Amino acid sequence: MRVREILAVKGTEVVTVDAHATLRELAGVLTARRIGAAVIREGEQIAGIISERDIVRALARHGEEALSFSVEMVMVRSVVTCGPDDTIDFLMTTMTEERIRHVPVVEQGRMMGIVSIGDVVKRRVDEIESEASLLRDYVQMR
Predict the structure, then answer these.
(1) What total of structural domains would you count in the chain?
(2) Domain ranges, residue 53
Protein backbone atom coordinates (compact mmCIF):
# COMPACT_ATOMS: atom_id res chain seq x y z
CA MET A 1 0.00 0.00 0.00
CA ARG A 2 1.42 3.37 -1.07
CA VAL A 3 0.78 7.01 -0.18
CA ARG A 4 -0.38 7.56 -3.76
CA GLU A 5 -3.40 5.33 -3.04
CA ILE A 6 -4.47 7.49 -0.09
CA LEU A 7 -4.29 10.62 -2.25
CA ALA A 8 -6.33 8.91 -4.97
CA VAL A 9 -9.17 8.49 -2.46
CA LYS A 10 -8.93 11.67 -0.38
CA GLY A 11 -7.82 14.08 -3.07
CA THR A 12 -4.84 16.36 -3.44
CA GLU A 13 -6.14 19.64 -2.00
CA VAL A 14 -3.78 21.24 0.51
CA VAL A 15 -4.90 24.19 2.60
CA THR A 16 -2.18 26.81 2.71
CA VAL A 17 -1.98 30.04 4.69
CA ASP A 18 0.15 33.13 4.35
CA ALA A 19 3.10 33.36 6.73
CA HIS A 20 1.92 36.82 7.80
CA ALA A 21 -1.57 35.66 8.80
CA THR A 22 -2.26 35.77 12.55
CA LEU A 23 -2.84 32.71 14.66
CA ARG A 24 -6.41 33.96 15.16
CA GLU A 25 -6.91 33.95 11.36
CA LEU A 26 -5.30 30.52 11.11
CA ALA A 27 -7.58 29.15 13.83
CA GLY A 28 -10.54 30.42 11.82
CA VAL A 29 -9.32 28.65 8.68
CA LEU A 30 -8.66 25.38 10.50
CA THR A 31 -12.09 25.53 12.14
CA ALA A 32 -13.95 26.44 8.96
CA ARG A 33 -12.22 23.71 6.94
CA ARG A 34 -12.39 21.16 9.78
CA ILE A 35 -8.70 20.32 9.48
CA GLY A 36 -5.82 20.09 11.91
CA ALA A 37 -2.96 21.74 10.03
CA ALA A 38 -2.06 24.07 7.19
CA VAL A 39 1.04 24.41 5.04
CA ILE A 40 2.88 27.69 4.59
CA ARG A 41 4.29 28.16 1.11
CA GLU A 42 7.02 30.37 -0.20
CA GLY A 43 6.39 30.32 -3.92
CA GLU A 44 6.21 26.64 -4.83
CA GLN A 45 8.36 25.59 -1.85
CA ILE A 46 7.12 24.53 1.57
CA ALA A 47 8.23 27.14 4.11
CA GLY A 48 6.59 25.50 7.09
CA ILE A 49 3.61 23.74 8.58
CA ILE A 50 1.43 24.73 11.51
CA SER A 51 -1.11 22.69 13.44
CA GLU A 52 -3.68 23.10 16.16
CA ARG A 53 -1.08 21.75 18.54
CA ASP A 54 1.28 24.63 17.65
CA ILE A 55 -1.47 27.16 18.40
CA VAL A 56 -2.15 25.56 21.78
CA ARG A 57 1.54 25.63 22.68
CA ALA A 58 1.76 29.33 21.78
CA LEU A 59 -1.32 30.06 23.89
CA ALA A 60 0.12 28.14 26.84
CA ARG A 61 3.38 30.10 26.66
CA HIS A 62 2.08 33.58 25.81
CA GLY A 63 -1.61 33.65 26.69
CA GLU A 64 -4.23 35.35 24.56
CA GLU A 65 -1.58 37.67 23.11
CA ALA A 66 -0.37 34.72 21.01
CA LEU A 67 -3.49 35.00 18.83
CA SER A 68 -2.02 38.18 17.33
CA PHE A 69 1.31 36.47 16.49
CA SER A 70 2.05 35.81 12.84
CA VAL A 71 2.02 32.23 11.64
CA GLU A 72 5.72 32.46 10.75
CA MET A 73 6.55 33.11 14.43
CA VAL A 74 5.10 29.75 15.44
CA MET A 75 5.25 27.47 12.38
CA VAL A 76 7.50 24.43 12.19
CA ARG A 77 10.15 25.18 9.58
CA SER A 78 11.76 21.77 9.23
CA VAL A 79 8.86 19.97 7.58
CA VAL A 80 8.93 16.20 7.30
CA THR A 81 7.63 15.14 3.88
CA CYS A 82 7.06 11.89 2.07
CA GLY A 83 6.76 10.80 -1.53
CA PRO A 84 3.75 9.30 -3.29
CA ASP A 85 5.52 5.95 -3.66
CA ASP A 86 6.40 5.65 0.04
CA THR A 87 4.61 2.82 1.79
CA ILE A 88 1.93 3.31 4.41
CA ASP A 89 4.08 1.32 6.86
CA PHE A 90 7.00 3.72 6.27
CA LEU A 91 4.69 6.69 6.76
CA MET A 92 3.22 5.27 9.99
CA THR A 93 6.72 4.68 11.35
CA THR A 94 7.83 8.19 10.39
CA MET A 95 4.76 9.82 11.97
CA THR A 96 5.24 7.82 15.16
CA GLU A 97 8.98 8.48 15.46
CA GLU A 98 8.68 12.19 14.62
CA ARG A 99 5.50 12.59 16.70
CA ILE A 100 3.69 14.36 13.87
CA ARG A 101 0.18 14.04 12.50
CA HIS A 102 0.41 15.70 9.08
CA VAL A 103 2.90 15.01 6.29
CA PRO A 104 2.95 16.86 2.96
CA VAL A 105 3.46 14.61 -0.06
CA VAL A 106 6.14 15.92 -2.41
CA GLU A 107 7.28 14.64 -5.79
CA GLN A 108 10.06 16.27 -7.79
CA GLY A 109 9.89 19.37 -5.57
CA ARG A 110 6.13 19.82 -6.08
CA MET A 111 3.59 19.36 -3.29
CA MET A 112 0.99 16.81 -4.41
CA GLY A 113 -1.14 16.62 -1.29
CA ILE A 114 -1.03 16.08 2.44
CA VAL A 115 -1.67 12.96 4.49
CA SER A 116 -2.86 12.96 8.09
CA ILE A 117 -2.59 10.22 10.68
CA GLY A 118 -6.37 9.84 10.33
CA ASP A 119 -5.98 9.12 6.61
CA VAL A 120 -3.34 6.49 7.34
CA VAL A 121 -5.36 4.81 10.09
CA LYS A 122 -8.52 4.77 7.96
CA ARG A 123 -6.68 3.19 5.04
CA ARG A 124 -5.06 0.60 7.32
CA VAL A 125 -8.41 -0.30 8.94
CA ASP A 126 -10.01 -0.65 5.49
CA GLU A 127 -7.17 -2.92 4.45
CA ILE A 128 -7.52 -5.12 7.57
CA GLU A 129 -11.31 -5.37 7.12
CA SER A 130 -10.84 -6.40 3.50
CA GLU A 131 -8.33 -9.09 4.47
CA ALA A 132 -10.66 -10.39 7.21
CA SER A 133 -13.53 -10.56 4.73
CA LEU A 134 -11.43 -12.52 2.25
CA LEU A 135 -10.37 -14.95 4.99
CA ARG A 136 -14.00 -15.45 6.10
CA ASP A 137 -15.01 -16.13 2.51
CA TYR A 138 -12.17 -18.60 2.12
CA VAL A 139 -13.06 -20.46 5.31
CA GLN A 140 -16.75 -20.66 4.34
CA MET A 141 -15.84 -22.15 0.95
CA ARG A 142 -13.98 -25.04 2.56
Answers:
(1) 1
(2) 3-141
